[in-house]
Amino acid sequence: MSDLHPYGMPITILKLDDSKEAMVNTTDLEKILLNEEIKDRKVMVLSLIGAFRGGKSFLLDYFLRFMYAHYPSLNNPKQVAGSFDNNQNWMGDANEPLLGFSWSSGTTRVTTGINMWNDVFLHTMDGTGEKIAIILIDTQGLFDNVTTQNDNSRIFGLGTLVSSVQILNLNKFIQEDQLQYLRYATEFATFTALDSKKTTERPFQKLTFLIRDWGNPDEFEFGLTGGNYFLKDVLKVQKDHKPELQEVRQSISKSYDQINCCLLPYPGIEVASAKNYDGSCAKMDPLFKKELKSFVEQILLPKNLVLKKINAVELTCSEYKTHIETYFKLFQSNDILKVQNVYDATIDSSMNILIEKCINEYNARISNEKELMDERHISVIHEGSKIVALDMFKNAKKMGTQEHEQKFGDKLKEQIGKIFEEWKQYQLNIIKKNQEKLEAESAKRQAEADAKKAEKERIKAEEAEKVAKVQAEQAEKAKLEETKKAEEALKA
Questions:
Q1: Per mean pLDDT, which range of 158-172, 205-219, 261-275, 395-409 is the poorest?
Q2: 3-state SS string over 370-389?
C-alpha cells in the first residue's frame, strides 16, 4: 500500500523478468545519479534486503518520512531541515497513511528486482561543510517459494555491492542458512585482502541486522543495545558449527567496517495482519512505535551517515553509477555469479574511473595554455601535463595487483597519447592559421606602405611638373618681353 508521494517515486533500476534474467534501467539511473546538483557529491546508499513479505518497503517509507522531515531533497530543495534533537513529530499524525515505496499486508510480492527512490536527499556535513547525497534502495524479497537459492544469492550480493548501509531485515531470529548469504561478502573480502596494494579498511561499510517480532526481550532487550549483545552471541564460533558457518563467523568482521543489530517488538495484530492497514501510527503497538522511531533515527542522524567507498575511496554519484552499472551487467544472465568475476569487474570500473580523473587533469592543464608558439612549445606543455596525470595515477589508492596497475597505467598512457595527437594537430592548425593571418596582415601593411609611397612620389612628380611648367611659362614670358623691347628699340 502506498499512494503517490508528492516529491518522488520508486524507480526499478534492475528488474528480474520471468526467465530470471536481469534488465538494467540505465536511462533512469543516469537521470538520477548524473543530475547536475549531485553528480559530484559523495554518496550514502541505504538498502534494505530480507525475507519476502517482511515489511522492508513499510520500513523504508518511515525512513522517507524521517528524511523529508529533516533533509532537503532534489525535488524539495527549500525544505528547512528539522531539528535532529527536538523534532519529535516526524512520524506524522496518528492516522496519516504512509506514502512512498509500495507495500501491503498479505502474501503477494510487491517489490521485484531493485528499486531506487528517485528523489535524492541533500546534506551538508557539519565541520567539513562537504555536500553529500543520500539515496534509498528497496530490494526484492528473498526466501519465498518462487525465488531460487541462486536468485537469493544474486540479490543479496547486489545489495551488498551497491550499499554503504545494508539493513538485513529478518523475522524473529537469524537463521543459519541466512548467514550463509554473507559468504558472498566474506569471499569478496578475501579477494581484496590479496591485493598488492593493501588497505586497512574493509571492502564494505555497514551491515545492520534488523530482527522483527523479537520474542525474547527478557534475555536480550529491544533496540540496538540488546541487539548487539544478541548478535555477538550469534556470531560466536561454536564447536558444533559446520566448517562453512565457522568460516562465515570468523570472516564477517573482516568484511564490514561496522556491524550491529536491532531487535524490534511485534508491531501489533492490525499492523501485521489487517489487509486495509495504511501504515499509520495509530494502530501500532506503542512499544513498537517507540523502538521503530529510535531505530530510524539511529540510522539516519547526520553523525551516523556512512558514505559509499570502494577500496577506501569515497565515491561520487557519477562514480557510483559507473560501478553499479558494471555490477548489474554481471547479473544480467541467470548463471551463478562468481565472486572472482565481481572482484575483477570492481577493479576494472575503479581503474577506469581513476583513468578518467587523470585524463580530466591532463585536459585541464593543456587547456590552460592559450598562446602556444610552436611545435616545441606544444610538446613541452604535453610532457609536463602528462607527468602530472601519471603521478596522479601512480599515487592514487588502487585495487588489484601490479599487473592490474601496469595494464591500466598503459591504458592511461595510450589515451593521453591519442588526446595529445588530436590536441597537437588542433594547436598546429591554430598556429598555422595565426601565422597565415600574421603574414597576410604583414603583406597588407606592406602593400599599403608601397601604395602610400607611390602616391607620395606621384604627388611629388605632379608638383615638379607644375613647377617646371610655371618656370617654362615664365621663361617664355620673359623671352616675349625681351623681343618686344628689342622691336621697340629698333623703331626708336
A1: 261-275
A2: CCCCCHHHHHHHHHHHHHHH
Per-residue pLDDT, 243: 80
- Cβ atoms < 10 Å from Cβ of 68: 23
In a domain, 63, yes or no: yes
pLDDT in tens, 103-128: 444 444 444 678 899 999 999 988 88
- The pLDDT, as a whole number, for residue 1 is 46
Phi, psi of 165 (to 5 degrees): -130, 115
428 pLDDT above the threshold of 60: yes
| Domain shared by 189 and 241, yes or no | yes
Is residue 329 located within the same domain as residue 417? no
Give the CATH number of the domain where residue 428 resides.
1.20.58
Could you tell me if residue 371 is inside a domain? yes
What is the rounded distance in angstroms from the CA atom of residue 416 to the CA atom of residue 30? 27
One domain, residues 161 and 87: yes
| CA distances to 33, 328, 402 from 358, in Å | 21, 26, 19
457 occurs within a structural domain: no
The more confident residue out of 240 and 32 is 32
Mark whether 113 and 171 lie in a shared domain. yes
Angle between helices 375-395 and 402-491 (to 10 degrees): 160
End-to-end CA distance of the chain: 147
Can you give the pLDDT at residue 430? 84
Q: What is the rounded distance in angstroms from the CA atom of residue 9 to the CA atom of residue 29?
A: 13
Cβ contact 305:164 at 8 Å: no
Partners of 69 in beta bridges? none
Query: What would the pLDDT profile of 68-93 be if each residue is shown by its tens digit?
Result: 999 999 998 877 665 666 556 788 88
DSSP secondary structure letters along 294-348:
HHHHHHHSGGG----EETTEEPBHHHHHHHHHHHHHHTSSSSPPPHHHHHHHHHH
**DSSP letters spanning 75-97:** S-TTPPPPPTTT-TTTT--TTPP
Mean pLDDT score of the chain, rounded to an integer?
84
| CA gap 263, 288 in Å, rounded | 10
Distance CA 144, CA 147 (A): 6
Domain extent for 236: 10-337
Beta partners for 204? 256
Q: Please give the average per-residue pLDDT across 51-76, as a whole number.
A: 85
Residue type at 162?
V
Distance CA 367, CA 143 (A): 55
Query: What are the φ/ψ torsions at residue 178 (nearest 5 degrees)?
Result: -70, -35
Q: State the CATH number of the domain containing residue 108.
A: 3.40.50.300
Largest Cα–Cα distance of the chain, in whole Å? Answer: 168
